[in-house]
Amino acid sequence: MGHSSSEPHVTPLSVYFTVFSSLIVLTFVTVGVSELGLPATLSIIVAMAVALVKATLVATWFMHLIHDTKLNISLFLASLWFMSIFFIFTTFDMASRGNVMKMSDTFEFRQQRADNNVRAGNVVVPEGIVDLKDIESGAHTASH
Question: Do both 19 and 50 map to the same domain?
Answer without folding.
Answer: yes
